[in-house]
Amino acid sequence: MKQLNGIIMQCFEWYLDCKQNFWNELKEKAPKLAEKGITAVWLPPAYKGFGGADEVGYAVYDVYDLGEFDQKGSVKTKYGSKDEYLECIQVLKQNGIEVYADIVLNHKMGADVFQTIPASKVDWENHNNQISQQEIVKVATKFTFPGRKHKYSDFEWNWTHFDGIDYNDATGEIALFKFKDKEWGTEVDEEHGNYDYLMGADLDFENPEVVEECTRWGEWYIDMTKVDGFRLDAVKHIPAYFYKGWIKHLREKTKRTLFTVGEYWSAEVDKLHRYITETDGEISLFDVALHYNMYHASKDENYDLRNILEKTLVKENSSKAVTFVDNHDTQPGQSLESFIDEWFKQAAYSIILLRNEGYPCVFYGDYYGIPHDNIERVKDIDTIIELRQKKAYGEQHDYFDDQHYIGWTRQGDEEHIRSGLAVVISNAGDGEKRMYIGEKFAGKKFIDALDNHNEEVIIEENGYANFKVKGHSTSIWVEE
């Protein structure tokens, strides 16, 4: 259940060098994360993938293998063993941190047996256009999981449970093959005509056996792991009706809230609204539109900061918005690379952490750094997180009225002693914003918690002050 001023941490980045020991490492970090103010974590996919010990988690092989069986060259996953995973979850929860599991049900990879079936090629640019006659193809679609030997589930997957694949093993041809008598799913993104197909052997959610097995697995997973909620991968490629029914069923079955956020990767906020409507508001979404606004602001010195929140989910439907700065897909070298420049990171984290809208998610790579690319942790990120916990309360006043200088204040409340703050962001030279923070602060001295500005600000009798900011910088003013 979302906590007041709660913060999610995405607890991984793509290039983690964890030597199959991550669950143990994270277990040790749990008390410190709780102390710092992290109230929930999104853990990486915990099941065996096609890449075995090197698999980040999205090339899914066996969702019942949480690091328990000798499959794909290892028993443990990249992150550790099943027992270590379960113990990590338990320790996180004992420290008051909720746990959200990464759920990847769009596709499977690394089949155990090839099948020879009829299929037709379709156009990569428009998946609705068939571009060949039906032909016989050899495809990796039969999953028997010999290493697991039917423990937990005796369900075996075959080509009828999928609607397409992108490789013919008989010829080595890479093409998009749609299987005989199959149609792409509905209620998916319309990019490429129909964006049901993403990668691997694509699950056919029109097949009742697929829906039943995914539902059975969901029940098993919650019972086995005791997670508190989910991060749903690639929802724009999966019929919205499936996840709407899936999460409703699991909530009714378990009598638990099961906070759920989906990854619908689109900067078009109208698509995010549509998905929320199609799923009856059961699922929150990552605010991809806000991420791209902040990315463009970090890259363009002429960006109009007045528009940073325009056409975003957090502005238009904040109760369903999970805000974030970057993630494992946007970091350097990854498929959706759009990494926000270092100079704007403090501004971006101030926007998601110090305002009263949205449920923010801090990226592991920003918090701990990304050694693979010699990227340091975001400067003073702990300070901004702490300010959310201690200061970011009360009525909010926005001053998004200048292309290069924006700000807002929080007046604080009686429940949180000495709460209240003022934020100013510049993407040009030195400047200041005249903003109201409240008469109760009259005569009080404010300082920049980030030490980006070394002057002090005295609040006037009428509750206003001129809050300063250095060029291309962020200042967070708090009572001294």
What key attributes describe this structure?
480 residues; alpha/beta; TIM Barrel; Elongation Factor Tu (Ef-tu), domain 3; Immunoglobulin-like; 3 domains; eight-stranded parallel β-barrel; six-stranded antiparallel sheet; elongated
Entry summary:
This protein has 480 residues and is an alpha/beta fold. The protein is built from ten helices and 24 strands. The protein has helices at 22-36, 82-94, 208-225, 240-254, 269-278, 288-299, 313-316, 342-353, 364-368, 381-390, and strands at 8-10, 40-43, 48-49, 60-62, 98-103, 107-108, 113-122, 135-142, 162-168, 173-179, 201-203, 229-232, 259-262, 284-286, 321-324, 359-363, 396-399, 405-410, 421-426, 431-436, 445-448, 456-458, 464-469, 474-479.
Instruction: Describe the largest sheet.
Output: 8 strands, parallel, barrel
Strand order of the largest sheet: 1-2-5-12-13-14-15-16
* CATH class type of the largest domain: Alpha Beta
Distance between the termini: 34 Å
Give me the number of helical elements: 10
- The CATH topology of the largest domain, please? TIM Barrel
β-sheet strand percentage: 15-25%
| Gyration radius from CA atoms, angstroms | 24 Å
Q: Quick one: CATH superfamily of the largest domain?
A: Glycosidases
Nearest-integer average pLDDT: 97
**Name of the CATH architecture of the largest domain:** Alpha-Beta Barrel
Tally of strands: 24
Which structural class best describes the helix and strand composition?
Answer: alpha/beta
Q: Estimate nothing, just give the exact number of structural domains.
A: 3
Unreliable runs, pLDDT <50, ≥5 residues?
A: none
Tell me the overall shape: elongated
What share of residues is helical?
10-25%
